[in-house]
Amino acid sequence: MIRPGDIIIIVLLLAASFIPYLVFARQQAKAQGPSAGTRVLTAYVTHDGKQVYKIRLTGHRGTSRYHYQAGSEYNDIVTTGDQIQIIDANCPDQVCVKKGRISKPGQTIVCLPHKLLVEIKSSTGSGTNGGGMVTE
């Protein structure tokens, strides 16, 4: 049998289940507020923890290419507009190539056999990350 107290508990639990949605929606709205227009996205390419290439994605036009080679291992990285991807590599599994394009902060492409990491980071304001290397 359902008692009136059970109905109250069910309604309260149902209402409480929306709390995480409200918290995350508020955080996202705050992140996309007035400072979102000044956000600068930069892609960093690191090999074995050392930065080998950096390019600013915010405001990037056209296509930029970067060829990374360490011994017989190589990766070809292409930036088109505000997106970056690895288009060719001589690693056996090709997971980094299959990953495709990335364009949002926190997204990464990893080539484990070559110890290569492509990561997008965000900064606010004009910042020091404004200048990026562009290699053809």
Structure, described:
With 136 residues, this protein is of the alpha+beta class. It has 3 helices and 7 strands. It has helices at residues 4-16, 19-31, 95-98; strands at 40-47, 50-56, 63-70, 73-80, 83-89, 108-111, 116-123. It has a 4-stranded antiparallel sheet with strand order 2-1-7-6, with no helix packed on it. The protein starts with a helix and ends in a 13-residue tail after the last strand.
SSE layout and pairing:
Layout: H1 4-16, H2 19-31, E1 40-47, E2 50-56, E3 63-70, E4 73-80, E5 83-89, H3 95-98, E6 108-111, E7 116-123
Antiparallel strand pairs: 1-2, 1-7, 3-4, 4-5, 6-7
Task: Quickly describe the structure.
By secondary structure, the protein is α+β, with helices and mostly antiparallel strands. It has helices at 4-16, 19-31, 95-98; strands at 40-47, 50-56, 63-70, 73-80, 83-89, 108-111, 116-123. The strands form 2 sheets. A 4-stranded antiparallel beta sheet has the order 2-1-7-6, with no helix packed on it. The protein has a 3-stranded antiparallel beta sheet with strand order 3-4-5.
Q: What is the overall number of helices? A: 3
**Would you list the SSEs in sequence order as H and E?**
HHEEEEEHEE
Find the structural class using helix and strand composition: alpha+beta
Low-confidence stretches: 125-136
Give me the side-by-side strand order of the main sheet: 2-1-7-6
Mean pLDDT: 86
* Shape by Cα distribution: elongated
Helix content: 10-25%
Distance between the termini: 74 Å
How many individual β-strands? 7
Largest sheet: 4 strands, antiparallel
Beta-strand fraction estimate: 35-45%
Instruction: State Rg.
Output: 22 Å
